[in-house]
Amino acid sequence: MPADVHDSRPLHAVLGSGPAGTTLARELVRRGHPVRLVDRTGSGPAIDGVRRRAADVATEEGARAAVEGAAVVYHCVNVGYHLQVEVMPRIQQAVLAAVEASGARLVVLDTLYPYGETQGAVMTEETPWRATTRKGRMRAALDERYLAAHREGRACVVLGRSADFVGPGVLNSTLGAAVFPGALTGGEVLALGDIDLPHSCTGIEDVAVGLATLGERPEGDGRVWHLPTAPAVTTRDIHTMIEKRTGRPLNVVVLAEPRPFGPFDEQFIAEYAEMFYQHTEPQIMDSSAVERAFGLRPTPLEDTLDATVTWYEQWLSRP
């Protein structure tokens, strides 16, 4: 028996050690759960209460090893933007097969992509799935298969949808390494599309709290939930809030249309172009359903930005 299933308490296995998976692992430890954190290398800084394991969950063998002995599995794996349409379905197939065989519950971190363009309408769990992009259609197809597995009794599955991430440790986001380093050093701060449109962002700590809650509350299974998300504000408003925290004006460069710039190289932009509508129409996500059902409250955006600026100050001063 693996070392991390000796504990008599049910094991929670987190697949993916990016910002969401790592923050979730810490949240689960805080709640008293034994935690396994899985990625392809099994390496990384030690986290109290977390055992790391190396496994490639895009393969059936790797997925079985990743979920072995776990009562709850959290799928927080993502891949490079240019690989998503090809690789994410393979990961789903392997992970679903593994939890179907093991009997573990599956909590999936999801995106807003299946909704597609909404012309600014507020997105709730009842919003129709009308994606027309390759990645949006791919995500919708994955979600349909997850929910079908639950309906058919093959697995217990629940999906938690998030808006764009923001928070400590978040680098690859429109509110990540393209914004905070420049804000703190006087360098360029990148923004996309119309910065006067409201745009929801989900704090990474709220992603973790929402997923952990779904992992503990099986009565939520079999459906999509929007993870706790603070009310949407405009990107310009966020810039003003960051300026107050850094004490300097931001040197903002706005890309009105997709083109390579700064951390967004040609390969990324070529893949992201179809998703650029997210920055040319309001992106407003409503999370009141999960808040009512489970008594959750999103972290105020001001508090998330405080924590993010502090984290980036430390990140920039690292040796």
From TrEMBL:
Under what name is this protein listed? Epimerase
Against CDD domains, the record matches this protein to: SDR_a3
The GO terms describing molecular function are: aldehyde dehydrogenase (NAD+) activity
Q: Which InterPro entries match?
A: Epimerase_deHydtase (IPR001509), NAD(P)-bd_dom_sf (IPR036291), NAD(P)-dependent_oxidoreduct (IPR051783)
Q: Where does the NAD-dependent epimerase/dehydratase domain lie?
A: 16-219
Q: Spell out the GO cellular component terms annotated for this protein, sorted alphabetically and separated by semicolons.
A: cytoplasm
What is any Pfam family matched here? Epimerase
